[in-house]
Please model this.
Amino acid sequence: MTTWGWAGLLVGVAAIVGIVAFAVPGVRRMRYGLLLCAGVLVLGGVVMGVVALSGSNSDDSASGPVADGPVTVTVDNRVTDGSGMREDSGPAVLSTVAENYCSSRGCALPDTGMGSGDTVTAICRTEGERTTNGDDSSAADDENPDLYTSTLWYRVEMPDGRTGFLSEVWLSADARGGLGLPAC
Model:
């Protein structure tokens, strides 16, 4: 449990004890004021405790444990072909934005073409445009177990030090899901 989780629970318990203690008959106006304060503390403590214990944070929710640092990932530049897979006709390329078709739209980084088996270093993750290794206009690959669609992109570093975005769709299955990397 995190420090915030314990703090939230303690505030909630303290507020409940305060409510019980001030429920004893006494000066009516002071009692209601104190009960109102205690109620606010209870609500704040419960909310703080639930948030801290759930660990929900949009920046950290992509996948499990946090990575110790950058992660080496393997490119899988294959597309579905009915029930099978084949190497895409064009290379996977890094882009300046987390969007598709950058080779034709001018947002591709020059000379970053990669094929299946190449490796790059994933630094961080972000949400971007929906990407698939399938054919949305055909149902022929809908049952293919290797069909994959995602909006998760990684900022990756090439061996020469240049960085850009690459959809997790173009990585091996073990490199998907966020890898515990921080948000970009």
